[in-house]
Design goal:
Length: 249
């Protein structure tokens, strides 16, 4: 589902619309509607937190807002990050892409660059609109020119994991057609070995979904609550086809 508090323009299957139905299923037809506590990007799968009453919902929303929720994602990426484990800490800003079809994308706004004259590290003037963004990552397995990564976003900037992987580490998420290129809107280009393992023609890659999954959320409400959600069937099938299957907790 595209997960929003209310359906924006062009949003079908907004989760807010199904909350009353969910509540009735849970509480024998006489419940208050459930309260949504946070958001997931439209194409991301995984754990969602819903509260049965408004007070608890407010408490949980505050935990998300003040970054007191530990989030762990799994992603299948193209390529392998080097080093295999680390922290990406590069600010992110939204920019308009000037191409035959103008569109907006989130992108990196680094604080440093290499000087073309002497190759020295030069500090760049800070972009006022950029938000600081921090993502921890760890390689769990690699095969078929792809990797299975565990990710922990410390901050919550829009499309942060997708941008840090694609533009920071050069490992875009499988099925991320938006951030696999900068200047154009086009389906992701997959390596031959990946296409072969997925039994897929490049011309059909446009139908490949985003392989980004919110695997675990941990939050403290009097006691630690650990919420885990296994990846959806399409994600699990891809892991098997790419031989990225590992023993997971």
């Amino acid at each position: 589902y595209s997960v929003r508090y209310a359906g924006g323009p062009g949003v079908r299957n907004c989760i807010a619309d199904v909350l009353p139905i969910l509540a009735k299923m849970l509480e024998n037809m006489k419940a208050e509607p459930l309260h949504l506590c946070h958001r997931l990007d439209k194409e991301t799968t995984g754990v969602m937190v819903l509260a049965r009453n408004k007070e608890v919902a407010e408490r949980i929303r505050l935990l998300f807002k003040t970054r007191q929720v530990e989030k762990t994602y799994w992603a299948i990426s193209l390529g392998e990050p080097d080093p295999a484990e680390g922290i990406v800490e590069i600010p992110i800003v939204e920019k308009e892409v000037q191409s035959h079809q103008s569109h907006y994308k989130m992108t990196l706004a680094p604080n440093y660059r290499l000087s073309p004259e002497d190759g020295k590290v030069v500090k760049i003037r800070k972009n006022r609109n950029a938000e600081s963004a921090v993502t921890r990552y760890r390689l769990l397995a690699s095969s078929s020119a792809c990797s299975l990564l565990e990710l922990q976003p410390v901050t919550g900037v829009k499309h942060q994991i997708r941008v840090h992987l694609a533009y920071g580490l050069g490992c875009p998420i499988l099925g991320d057609h938006k951030y696999s290129h900068w200047s154009k809107l086009a389906p992701q280009k997959l390596p031959e070995i990946t296409l072969k393992r997925l039994k897929l023609k490049q011309s059909k890659v446009r139908h490949l979904p985003l392989h980004l999954h919110a695997h675990r959320l941990s939050l403290h409400l009097g006691e630690w609550i650990d919420l885990v959600c296994k990846p959806p069937p399409f994600f699990q099938k891809t892991l098997k086809k790419l031989e990225l299957d590992i023993d997971k907790d």
